[in-house]
């Protein structure tokens, strides 16, 4: 069945067109010369590839065999342009991977990574259509390929979600993703793991057909050594080196053995001996490849028995014969691409390629739409989660409006009133007329009984003890002749003596361990005395305010005459809630996709980092708009937070801060490899922001030095702008408002730029 790749858009070069650009070159698949790769820095540096030479002819299958940890995956990731060699050269389909002419990453290559690298929330159908859009393939073509591969690979029904499939089924879907766009080069990292022998057989048959009938080049790693007999060439790898590279038949003949496993074992044993000898001469370079270096594969030279020695002699003879009669399997790099590597000339020149290719800067519409649809699908698939994400900032605003700024109530206060007569059962009587008696009881009547619960005590000592035991918040004590002494004090005016002053005072002792409670009690007790004074003065026909302090607060220019804390804190909570959700959501999405290998797979398929970012911004904007709508509905309509300015301006600042949080999330995701370190960075940034941006307390109340840090935070100016819009109704013409908008833009572009730079540096440092 001949299948043709069908492309949709005339703007993008078709696969055939793209491929035809390389038709001037001689047929070649992959060429690697003297490839070396080192992981880690300083003392942790270890070599994973040690001067590998490898040749893969176009239209052939190359089986890369080697024990776990010998560097196969590292080599493949260099081939697809996801990692960079430290020295040496690679040509894939005639070009360096990553170069604009190579088409790699892109549709020329089908890559099946070792990890699953599929979206668990996607059905098989959606998965293939996602990659189909990235490759700009027609829907019909993707559908027909899906039908064909479903039969070939015995895939479950295409509506099944990938996350619900068995491990083997998931591997087969992953294999289908690598195959379905019929790429020129297939790079498959252990495609047959977890697949039953029958299916393994049909997979290999398919690979053979792909190479023979369609001239496709296949590089496949496998742990099942014997299945690699169907490959045209086998590369046996150990400790970052290629021990042998030949056709399976030649290997079996040259080593005079009946199975490839035996050949591999033999080569490893010989290599161990050579290594031991070499180690005695030169100190070995630190090696991070593991694999066959275990005891089972590490024989002493005595274990190489006589028959093996005979075999070795025979093997050397065979090799010698072949070398003299057969043409060399490998092409030299000069043969392959003289335009690309004129400096090579067939000699073993090892140099690190420092070229960083600039790809097309313009994002592609089909890839962007694929990414936006993918993000949307992920978002809407889990409606519960979507609602939670939309509502979580609103929930934070609701909780803060309900929990912050309220006056403390029902505070127990001990009342010790020595004015009461024990012979009359200490009954607190008072009059409302102009009578100077029992002022203590008359005063107590004015204490707000929502704030204070009065608890009578017989003695000061008992009451103080209750304070110490935490039973009451304080003690209010009236001396024995409180009313008389107060009358004398008022009459004496400035001539009142100290004893009179002491005997006429209401002595209050508070538990001031809680600032807000003791402030409320003080305010309540002072207000009660003002009301009590006015009451007596009015009863005696005097001007009620005559005895008040001569300080009067007139109407406020902005805000209420009695501002509440929640009005101050609401804009900050609103901004920070949206900002923090954007930080954590972005970090989580990007890191989890990267950890699952989805990111790499999409990049190898041709998606650019900037396209990931743009698509995420689009989806994040949808989320932000939803969150902002809910947040403002609750803040303004339900909790009636005072708002005097332009709603459009406030919404703009809120959205910008959401994008700012998203940009920080991107930066954290590009900095961290592990979710735990990303979470720590997110939380750290959340707390620093919360305390140093003036969200919870005015910046004017901070220490002078902290203020410098405060104004270097991404939220501080935006928050000032929002407060000015909320409380003062200022508009865009004021620098205090537009300053916050401009600074938010500055932060967004700086953080996005930094993320791109960090991502690029880390990619090339990998
Ligand atoms: N990013 C990294 N940093 C440091 N060491 C790494 C990194 N990636 C891989 N390694 C190490 O490099 C060595 C080769 O790893 P690689 O994944 O290439 O092996 P492999 O042959 O593909 O193994 P397997 O068959 O088990 O997949 C291993 O020892 C591994 O621990």
Characterize the structure shown.
The protein is an alpha/beta fold and 766 residues long. It has three domains: 15-108 and 183-327, P-loop containing nucleotide triphosphate hydrolases (Rossmann fold, 3-Layer(aba) Sandwich), CATH 3.40.50.300; 365-401 and 564-765, no CATH class; 411-539, D-Maltodextrin-Binding Protein, domain 2, CATH 3.40.190. It is built from 25 helices and 13 strands. Helix 13 links the parallel strand 10 (411-417) and strand 11 (452-457). Helix 18 runs antiparallel to helix 22. Adenosine-5'-triphosphate is lined by residues 39-40, 48, 66, 68-74, 114, 288-290. The chain crosses the membrane at residues 383-405, 568-591, 612-635, 647-671, 737-758.
Under CATH, the topology of the largest domain is which? Rossmann fold
Compute the gyration radius: what is it?
40 Å
Q: What number of domains?
A: 3
* CATH homology group of the largest domain: P-loop containing nucleotide triphosphate hydrolases
**Count, helices:** 25
Overall 3D shape: elongated
> Whole-number average pLDDT?
84
Separation, N- and C-terminal Cα atoms: 41 Å
- The fraction of residues assigned to DSSP E strands is 5-15%
The counted number of beta strands is: 13
Class inferred from helices and paired strands: alpha/beta
Q: Mind describing the biggest β-sheet?
A: 6 strands, mixed
The CATH class designation of the largest domain is Alpha Beta
CATH architecture group name of the largest domain: 3-Layer(aba) Sandwich
Bound small molecules, deduplicated = adenosine-5'-triphosphate
Task: Please estimate the helix content.
Answer: 40-55%
Low-pLDDT windows of residues = 1-26, 291-359
| Order of strands across the main sheet | 5-6-7-3-8-9
Keywords: ATP-binding, Membrane, Nucleotide-binding, Transmembrane, Transmembrane helix
GO molecular function: ABC-type transporter activity; ATP binding; ATP hydrolysis activity
Protein name: ABC protein, subfamily ABCH
Organism: Daphnia pulex (Water flea)
């Amino acid at each position: 069945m001949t299948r043709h790749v069908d492309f949709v858009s005339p703007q993008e070069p078709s696969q055939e067109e793209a491929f035809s650009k390389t038709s001037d070159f001689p047929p070649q698949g992959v060429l690697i010369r003297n490839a070396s790769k080192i992981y880690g820095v300083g003392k942790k540096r270890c070599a994973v590839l040690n001067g590998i030479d490898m040749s893969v002819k176009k239209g052939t299958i190359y089986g890369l065999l080697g024990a776990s940890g010998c560097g196969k995956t590292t080599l493949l990731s260099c081939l697809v342009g996801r990692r960079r060699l430290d020295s040496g050269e690679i040509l894939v389909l005639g070009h360096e991977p990553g170069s604009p002419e190579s088409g790699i990453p892109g549709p020329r290559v089908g890559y099946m990574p070792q990890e699953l690298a599929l979206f668990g929330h996607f059905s098989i159908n959606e998965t293939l259509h996602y990659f189909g859009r990235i490759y700009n393939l027609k829907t019909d073509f993707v559908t027909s390929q899906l039908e064909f591969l479903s039969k070939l690979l015995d895939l479950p029904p295409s509506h099944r979600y990938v996350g619900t499939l068995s491990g083997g089924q998931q591997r087969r879907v992953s294999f289908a993703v690598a195959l379905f766009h019929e790429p020129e080069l297939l790079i498959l990292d252990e495609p047959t793991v977890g697949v039953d022998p029958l299916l393994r057989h049909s997979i290999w048959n398919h690979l053979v057909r792909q190479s023979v009938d369609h001239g496709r080049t296949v590089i496949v790693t496998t742990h099942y050594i014997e299945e690699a007999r169907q490959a045209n060439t086998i590369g046996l790898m150990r400790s970052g080196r290629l021990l042998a590279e030949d056709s399976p038949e030649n290997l079996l003949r040259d080593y005079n053995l009946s199975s490839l496993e035996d050949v591999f074992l033999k080569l490893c044993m010989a290599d161990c001996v050579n290594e031991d000898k070499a180690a005695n001469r030169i100190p070995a370079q630190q090696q991070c490849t593991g694999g066959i270096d275990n005891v089972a594969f590490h024989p002493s030279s005595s274990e190489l028995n006589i028959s093996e020695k005979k075999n070795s002699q025979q093997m050397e003879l065979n090799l010698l014969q072949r070398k003299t009669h057969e043409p060399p399997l490998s092409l030299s790099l000069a043969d392959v691409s003289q335009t690309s590597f004129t400096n090579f000339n067939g000699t073993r020149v090892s140099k690190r390629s420092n070229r960083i290719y600039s790809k097309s800067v313009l994002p592609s519409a089909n890839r962007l739409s694929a990414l936006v649809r993918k993000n949307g699908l992920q978002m809407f698939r889990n409606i519960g989660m979507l609602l939670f994400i939309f509502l979580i900032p609103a929930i934070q605003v609701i909780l803060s409006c309900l929990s912050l700024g309220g006056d403390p109530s029902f505070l127990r206060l001990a009342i010790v009133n020595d004015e009461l007569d024990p012979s009359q059962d200490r009954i607190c009587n008072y009059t409302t007329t102009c009578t100077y008696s029992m002022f203590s009881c008359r005063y107590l009547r004015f204490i707000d009984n929502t704030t204070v619960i009065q608890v009578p005590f017989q003695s000061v000592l008992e009451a103080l003890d209750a304070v110490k035991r935490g039973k009451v918040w304080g003690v209010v004590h009236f001396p024995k002749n409180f009313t008389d002494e107060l009358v004398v004090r008022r009459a004496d005016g400035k001539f009142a003596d100290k004893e009179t002053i002491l005997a006429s005072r209401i002595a209050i002792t508070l538990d001031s361990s809680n600032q807000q409670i003791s402030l409320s009690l003080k305010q309540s007790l002072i207000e009660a005395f003002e009301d009590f004074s006015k009451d007596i003065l009015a009863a005696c026909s005097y001007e009620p305010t005559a005895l008040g302090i001569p300080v009067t607060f007139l109407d406020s220019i902005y805000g209420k005459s009695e501002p509440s804390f929640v009005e101050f804190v609401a804009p900050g909570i609103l901004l920070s809630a949206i900002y923090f959700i954007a930080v954590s959501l972005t970090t989580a999405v990007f890191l989890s996709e990267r950890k699952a290998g989805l990111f790499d797979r999409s990049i190898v398929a041709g998606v650019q980092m900037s396209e990931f970012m743009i698509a995420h911004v689009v989806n994040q904007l949808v989320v932000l708009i939803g969150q902002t709508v809910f947040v403002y509905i609750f803040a303004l309509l339900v909790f009636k937070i005072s708002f005097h300015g332009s709603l459009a301006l406030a919404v703009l600042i809120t959205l910008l801060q959401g994008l700012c949080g998203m940009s920080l999330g991107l930066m954290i995701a590009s900095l961290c490899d592990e979710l735990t370190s990303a979470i720590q960075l997110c939380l750290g940034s959340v707390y620093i922001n919360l305390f140093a941006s003036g969200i919870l307390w005015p910046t004017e109340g901070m220490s002078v030095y902290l203020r410098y840090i405060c104004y270097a935070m991404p939220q501080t100016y935006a928050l000032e702008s929002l407060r000015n819009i909320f409380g003062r109704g200022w508009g865009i013409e004021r620098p205090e408002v537009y300053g916050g908008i401009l600074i938010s833009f500055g932060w967004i572009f700086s953080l996005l730029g930094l993320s791109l730079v960090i991502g690029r540096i880390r990619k090339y440092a990998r």
